[in-house]
Amino acid sequence: MSKPIICIGAAFVDELFHASEEMLLATTNNAKVTKTAGGVSRNIAHQLALLGVPVQLISVFGDDSDGDWLKKICTDAGVKLDASITKEGLSGKYTGILNVDGSLFTAFISNSATQLITPYHLGKHVELLKSASFILADANINVDTAEWLLAFSNDSGVPFILEPVSVPPARKYRDVNLSGLYLITPNEDELPVLCSEKSFFTQQQVDEMLQRGVKQIWLHNGKHGSALYGPGKSVSLHAPEIEVLDCTGAGDGSLSGFILGKYLEKDDAECMKIAHTLSAEILQVNGAIATHLDQQKLLELVSKYYPS
Fold first, then answer.
1. Can you tell me the distance from the alpha carbon of 225 to that of 198, in angstroms, rounded to the nearest whole number?
2. pTM
3. How far apart are CA 6 and CA 276, in angstroms?
4. What backbone torsions phi and psi does residue 115 show, to the nearest 5 degrees?
5. Do 138 and 173 form a contact (C-beta atoms < 8 A)?
6. For the chain, what are the domain ranges?
7. How confident is the model at residue 213 (pLDDT cuts 50, 70, 90)?
8. In a 10 Å sphere around its CB, with 0-12 CB exposed, 13-18 middle and 19+ buried, how is residue 285 labelled?
9. CATH tag, 12-41+93-111+132-305
């Protein structure tokens, strides 16, 4: 059996309010509401499973109806939950307020409980972690847990990927020793808070991350595309021009596509094309998952967005 991708971090109920008109402050706004399964690590695990990749998710679920619903969605998609935690109380929720153009106005996270994913808990599942082809964690987890995972990665040789998620969780990792980290995936807002104040320009920030021992930095610049940096190399790729319906999960989808490419032993440039293709498809549907795609369809779509 192929080695699984292990995703560690948040699983949320995503409740999204789509504004019907331009947002007005301090008053009532009309909106349409959608409810989907979310959470960065959960989204990535779900998408990879739909793309035919074996996946284990280590996350936290409440013992409420939302938790049961989230677990069923995961298992129905093919995601295994052998090392996940069920806690007493409410499941985590992500409440997003979207502008009329689908971009994010603001968002709230409640009842995350990712602090329950401790080094002690992971230590009970070392054999599972050793079986992985890649380990991915989102920055919602505690710093000491991420440090434990990085030490495990350096000892075991299993590549570890850290997804910063957003500015507040990314900021926690500014002073953390990241030596040996296989990949970190910030956007243009998250990269500066990962670095010291003396690194003002993007190239300085990238250089600082490399000097701290990070092997690769994949910098996302929204509609402008992305760039992958490593010692002595950089690869950049433009983003496809599309009409955005819902921005939720586009970054998660992009990382899912990149990991799929690595799982299939593609080179960096091809991995980025797969990543951008999947992200573009997610931006054109409601919710964070491209349920209309399997691996073959996704790979065929790459030539649509990036013709030779």
1. 26
2. 0.91
3. 22
4. -65, -15
5. no
6. 12-41+93-111+132-305
7. very high
8. middle
9. 3.40.1190.20
